[in-house]
Amino acid sequence: MNIRPLSETYAVSPQISPGDLPAIRDAGYTTVIDNRPDGEIPSEVQTEAMRAAALALGLEFVTNPVVGGQLTMANVEAQGRAIAAARGPVLAYCASGNRSSIVWALSQAGTLPAAELIARAARHGYQIGHLEPQIEALAAQKSVG
Fold this sequence. Notes:
Blueprint (H helix, E strand, L loop, with lengths): L3 E2 L4 E4 L7 H6 L4 E4 L12 H10 L3 E4 L9 H13 L4 E4 L4 H10 L6 H9 L9 H13 L1
Helix pairs in contact: 3-4, 4-5
């Protein structure tokens, strides 16, 4: 398990297993977001196995599958809602942590400058600079709405 914090309350990780959840809870995370579609992974780490293990430990578990190359605004909005509803720090995971970084940056548009959101992901090797125009556009929409 390789937890990579993007903020004080949100971190990403490559794929985790049920056996990682006690350490995640003990590290202070209260919510786990699964950004990985079941079709990509073996049954022992699919949504229902992970949900059952997380809930048994008192963790909140949110499913928001992001299909590679097919990110939707529904994904971005669901990630933002899950982060906002969390009662403590959030750990989101996917195959590498990249998709979880992308939906975080887009969902947090307007809370920090786009360059800062991009830089936080880049510190952990996630190159999302190409999203700067989308982050800026979302930030502008939020400031008008």
